């Protein structure tokens, strides 16, 4: 919309207002209302307790763990794979560090944390009697039927 078009519409609005087609006061600027934030921790904790389920570990499989130890081959090839962190736990970006290598370190941290979860979780599942391997004669149920596959 150009300036001349917006002036035309302003003039049209003023004319409509003068003719009485528009009622004054409908287009007033609404007062700014400051929103009040309520932090009622007691009620929040009560609601959390209502929603919380008391399930066995095998039902949730939640784990909090660190990183698995770095294999000697990887430590020899890449050196120290630890990400430098500040006091709050945020990763410090060094100006001399290559960002591509930094991403590799981050991905390696995800991999090592998943490894640690497996190293801790599988023995825990075995202690609870949960089978973690399929039998040798197990055939997976196919998503598509045999007749559909022959088409």
Automatic annotation (TrEMBL):
Its main location: nucleus. It comes from the Eukaryota. GO terms for cellular component: nuclear periphery; nucleolus; preribosome, large subunit precursor. The keyword Nucleus applies. The keyword NADP does not apply. InterPro entries: Ebp2. GO terms for biological process: ribosomal large subunit biogenesis; rRNA processing. Pfam families: Ebp2. Keywords: Coiled coil, Nucleus, Ribosome biogenesis. It is found in: Nucleus, Nucleolus. Required for the processing of the 27S pre-rRNA. Belongs to the EBP2 family. This is Putative nucleolar protein-like/ebna1-binding protein. It comes from Amblyomma triste.
